[in-house]
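User: Run a structure prediction on this.
Assistant: Running it now.
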Amino acid sequence: MEIRSDRQLFVSFADLDVRWDTINDDSADPHFQGWACRHDVRDAYGTTFAPGSWSAGGLDDEPYALCWMHDPTSPVGVFRANDVAEGLRIRGWWDNTADGRDARVKAQSRSAPELSVGFSQAIFDEEDSSRIVACRLVEVSQITARMAAVPGSELTSARSSSASDAFAIARARLRLRSVPLLGRED
């Protein structure tokens, strides 16, 4: 539906083609990368994670939640994980929300640069009761400095918004300003 006036053209939202650029896909550069857990490093609880323990627990290719301080009601992003020889490697994207943007800033300022794993269903080595040989990943949390249970579990890169992200935001704002609301005469 279209309404014309002397000064503006009004278009119904139903007639608009709404599009947005996604950044939470494999084709976009990740916002962050890091080690969620290091293998064979004694943690604050006296346990170690064996190489392959995450794969043995059922690690898959689906996105996992990046939480803030292990609070499942405060997700700040998503990530994908790989169980490699050195540990559980993650790469992901912060949400485009206030919490996600705050988490990014805190990673970049190094006030919250560390990571901590949330897991369940741990199976321990029969010969070493402090060594986990299989566990199911539930989530990874971004945590404040000096809180990681496993030393070396941290974000290794935290990218700023790219120029293309800034341009996409500017284009979206410009589109919103150029679409007057129905019935509005300024």
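The CA atoms of residues 60 and 121 lie 15 Å apart.
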